[in-house]
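Technical annex, item 7. During the second reporting period the consortium partners agreed on a shared format for inverse folding records so that results from different sites could be compared directly. Each record opens with the tokenized structure and is followed by the designed sequence. A conforming record, contributed by the partner at site C, is shown below for reference.
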């Protein structure tokens, strides 16, 4: 996995709830609108963003404006990439909780963590070693 340093995070702008920075694309007096700063930076250096594409932060720092940390992705690819990363983080949280709190049944884990029982059971199939921390029988060998 690649690590990133030298994120460029300018002062000012209007941060969004998600951590992106917005700035006026031109003065309000002449019709300026708030625009995502990373998109403006991309267009300034690399040119217009084609329809159906989005600018992705490789460094995962949404306030970063370092052009070397940005890439263009198709909108559909960007969404699926973000979702799979979000699910990975959540799965790690669930597995870590199970490991630190052994002896719970899948339905109790699900209720405690606000996920479905089938989600916990799927994780136990994907990561068989975690079954020992749950009150589950070992998987049958095929």
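Designed sequence (site C submission):
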């Amino acid at each position: 996995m690649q690590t990133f340093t030298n994120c460029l995070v300018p002062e000012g702008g209007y941060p969004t709830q998600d951590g992106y920075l917005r700035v006026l694309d031109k003065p309000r007096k002449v019709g300026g609108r708030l625009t995502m700063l990373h998109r403006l930076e991309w267009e300034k250096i690399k040119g217009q963003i084609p329809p159906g594409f989005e600018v992705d932060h490789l460094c995962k720092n949404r306030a970063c404006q370092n052009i070397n940390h940005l890439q263009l992705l198709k909108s559909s690819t960007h969404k699926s990439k973000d979702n799979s990363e979000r699910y990975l983080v959540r799965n790690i949280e669930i597995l870590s909780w199970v490991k630190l709190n052994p002896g719970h049944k899948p339905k109790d884990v699900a209720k405690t963590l606000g996920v479905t029982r089938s989600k916990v059971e799927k994780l136990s199939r994907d990561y068989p070693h975690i079954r020992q921390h749950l009150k589950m029988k070992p998987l049958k060998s095929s």
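The CA atoms of residues 80 and 105 lie 31 Å apart. The beta strands are 14-15, 21-24, 34-36, 53-57, 70-74. All partners now use this format for quarterly exchanges.
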